[in-house]
Design a protein that fits this description.
alpha+beta, elongated, binds Dihydroxyacetone, binds zinc ion
Length: 269
Amino acid sequence: MKSILDNRPALTKEVNKVAEVAGYLWQKGWAERNGGNITINITEFVDDEIRQMKPISEVRTIGALMPNLKGCYFYCKGTNKRMRDLARWPMENGSVIRILDDCASYVIIADHPVVPTSELPSHLGVHNDMISKGSPNKASVHTHPIELIAITHSPKFMKKDVATRMLWSMIPETKAFCPRGLGIIPYELPSSLELGEATIKVLEDYDVVMWEKHGVFAVDCDVMQAFDQIDVLNKSALIYIAAKSMGFEPDGMSDAQMQEMTIAFNLPK
Ligand code: 2HA
Ligand code: ZN
């Protein structure tokens, strides 16, 4: 069977990275059932032949206006699809969509009429916003990392930057590789417009945001880097929990040690 990936090595590489990350999310226990979703702006890999491809779905509305996404193309995980299946069969568990000229609707163009993720309005809203700011970010990942979600069940960690400071102080790499920290979004209904809007707002100051008692949403230049940011944050949460289960509150790196590292690695304050 023909695939949009045939003879397109650059696009294939991007989709294969999504599949690899989907496998990690499953192995880490962050992607139960159909949990989580990934969207990638693949417009830079689209050629004339793809632009001519006929829709394989009816026209579907996004539910919000996305003025910067006219003629853009995205690979999206399918709604109700499993990350563990996507890891092996990315084009059966996700699809490529084209945003139409009204900036409010889309069609699926390949390979199968797999309907995109339930969080599509949040994801596309974020992509729309990143384009408006000239951001190089092309990937957005939503997943359910166990230990990071667990800390959101404590109100003290829901205060601005309390979780960020704790996570950064567990191991020097965390601030180095997630230099903007973890933004906090108080609980909102999954898939809601409110959740999407809050995500766009908090992403102005962070690359990874926490949806209280639900999961994280991360953006980066590619899917692997978005995954890495979540992974280093969750590693810190694991160290915190390991210390707590040994019966003590971890000291964390001191302010002086954090400061020294921030200067040495040229990180934002
Ligand atoms: O796609 O995780 O938040 C399943 C979800 C929705
Ligand atoms: Zn979710």
